[in-house]
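Re: How this chain folds, sequence and tokenised backbone to follow

Filed under: protein folding, tokenised backbone structure, sequence and structure records.

Contents: The amino acid chain and a row of whole-number tokens, matched residue for residue.

Body of memo: The sequence and its backbone structure tokens, given next.
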Amino acid sequence: MKNPFLVGEKIYLRTITESDLNENYREWFNDEEVCRYNSHHRFPNYDENMRDYYETTIKSRANLILAICDKETDAHIGNIALENIDTLNKSAEFAIVIGDKSYWGRGAGKEAGRLILEHGFEELNLHRIYCGTQDGNTGMQKLAVSLGMKEEGRRREAMYKNGAYTDIVEFGLLRKDFGTGD
């Protein structure tokens, strides 16, 4: 394992480095299938974009963005984040992308999600962690529910993508409910 930050059974989370901004990483965000339900893939991603993203977003104290890596191979398979960390209201937004499609449906997202939620509640002392996803993104909705999040509402026609407006389904989890099995 290369500089693990949080360690699970099959995956570990580590900081993203400049060397991660390689061809595979850029390809994830240029891949229509990987980005079908997120806000990426509207403009091409170039090396300069990725470096700007690294400097302004990944290094920001308002965001905790980590690489998801396979413990056996050290392969960087995706990213997971607590973004828009609000220290006053003790909340943050959960985000995840599994860029390596060979890991889809294999539990890496759930394991990474449990690790970062636990870190958010126990180490960052957050009260609430939330996320939103397009109405059609059943994979993310199932992940949110499997992590204990509750559906909290819907923002109607809040995202324009692929020529149509879609609703955003909002989920949230309170610290007191984390790990209760509800």
Summary: The helical segments are 23-30, 47-58, 108-122, 138-146. The two ends are 33 Å apart (CA to CA). The chain has one domain: 6-177. The mean pLDDT is 86.
